[in-house]
Here is the input.
Amino acid sequence: MAARPGGTRHATLKDVAERAGVHAGTASRALNPATQGLVSEATVRAVREAAKALDYRPNSMARGLKTNKTFMVGVIVPDLSNPLFPPIVRGAEEVLSRAGYTTIIADTDNDREREGESIAALRARQVDGLLVASASRDDEAVRTAVEQGVPLVLVNRRTESANVPTVTSDDRSGIEKALEHLVRLGHTAIGHLPGPAHLSTGLERARAFRHHMSELGGTLAPELTVECSTYSVDAGAVAARTLLDQAEPTAILAGNDQIAVGVLDVLRERGLRCPEDVSVVGYNDMTFMDKLSPPLTTVRVPHAAMGAEAAQLLLRWLAEGPPAANVLTLPVELVVRGSTARPRAGG
Amino acid sequence: MAARPGGTRHATLKDVAERAGVHAGTASRALNPATQGLVSEATVRAVREAAKALDYRPNSMARGLKTNKTFMVGVIVPDLSNPLFPPIVRGAEEVLSRAGYTTIIADTDNDREREGESIAALRARQVDGLLVASASRDDEAVRTAVEQGVPLVLVNRRTESANVPTVTSDDRSGIEKALEHLVRLGHTAIGHLPGPAHLSTGLERARAFRHHMSELGGTLAPELTVECSTYSVDAGAVAARTLLDQAEPTAILAGNDQIAVGVLDVLRERGLRCPEDVSVVGYNDMTFMDKLSPPLTTVRVPHAAMGAEAAQLLLRWLAEGPPAANVLTLPVELVVRGSTARPRAGG
DNA sequence: ATGAAAGCGCTAACAC
DNA sequence: GTGTTAGCGCTTTCAT
Here is the structure.
């Protein structure tokens, strides 16, 4: 006989009830901590014992069907292989699982359309709520879901398409700290390679760059900024070549660590040394960024904490309805390593 | 009114049936491709139209309750933040989602006990099958699940506790290639820092090391091998210090890339240069291993393909019962980079 | 070709 | 304190 999916038939609540000599309803009450008080202590014991003996596990589908709650939460990430996202997922998962929720991860592969499909698929699975780490500034899928009342919290990236609880980190302060560091070292010709402007992180960091550069009195020439098409090593390299073809920065502020890695590659390719000829600053502080050559100076973002906070927000929503306070911005920290130094000629 | 979990009430099959002017049973048949032939074409059209109009999404819990199939698969990984595992998950997810399955990821945090809990939790969720990437050689939880007939496929790590379909990569050939490379360069005093022996990868690679070393005529002194307590940078560093205290290897073969990174750190700490003084070889070829200083020579393991193959095996099991062929071993490839060179004195 | 009805395993409203 | 009953949304016999 072929193994039935799920394996050996599981004991059902009725089995437990029969073995304990009570009715299924009573068994249900005995097993549920919330309703356990309505049942005699002796019965509780008997039922518990029977359940243990039969290795009873409540069927969450049946329960969900009845209670209209699945205790499942969907988490949508653009790319699980991007070291940025696993910590977010783990931070969220820890909080959620502690509250009895199971996490379903969907990977959109950085594809806008697949985000919509993922949301739809997860909703079809009757998840109780959604954590979205893949939002773009203009995000139809998120807007639709929010309009339809789906409990949904954004993490890492914001959107302008909907008023929805969001947990991000402080891009402005991150950029400010990075720039302050570079300016203090004596840099004035600072190149900027922001991420795509259709993502909130790309735009906000680019804005912050302009703002703080003019405040700090650095050069703000248009040819010192080249937008990257994606947050990737390759796109970073492409942008770095363009930048170095049209300007002579003594330092480059990269939109994120991947872009910074691309910059490092291009510098090597052109015979430029880092940090002697050009300083480089990344963003995020992914794993192993301290092992690069030179170790990357970068802005550390508390990804796990962001995931955890977003999960908390979602749990609160699930428990008490939509939260009022809508945006949580976590502080970041500049980690100075070997990729930044005083400029050659002293600026 | 508080938003109901899951958002706006979803249209139900009955709603669709009513709108199409048919019975729910008929609507069900019309919507299911398999039973669609039993229904008049006109009805199919009407029902489909009604479904579209109401944005009908079948409730997978209700369906699952009836059919005893959830189209969910659990994937258990030891640590999602370890860059090794996301590719495995993605490879699996791609195959599974194409077949209509949803993936639930559980992270055991490298904790044996939590593996058992994860399996239990996933089974309580009535997943149709399990992909386990966290197995240890002696794995009670896996043994139990298999005995109970749970469709379960191992990936990346084997177990000796149960006869269960497994997809791994060719550890012996990987070690052989690495050793051949080192021996050809002229190394004879080759240190080995295997991963923990309670994991199949740790043991198999250690065995392969001994086997091929004696075949290739290298030194096989006990003080040249130090087992790492875990697959981590820290454990690698600890083991490397021990190794360098008790022997003078001209090359070190690390149990995996994290361990190799630890070795690189310790070499730097002791003023030894890589590869001039000591060559280092890693294992896995995780992201960014080509960006280390020096770029790491390592054995590339096809993680995504392993995940995909494991998923295939599981799907076949789900469709046709337990597969006969039980172990699939994928080929690996040595990637030579800058961390290996001829030894100082010529060996 | 379609309607009727039973029931998956569970919970909750209602008896007693 | 416990049994009874109904029903969550769906599939699937069984009639017709």
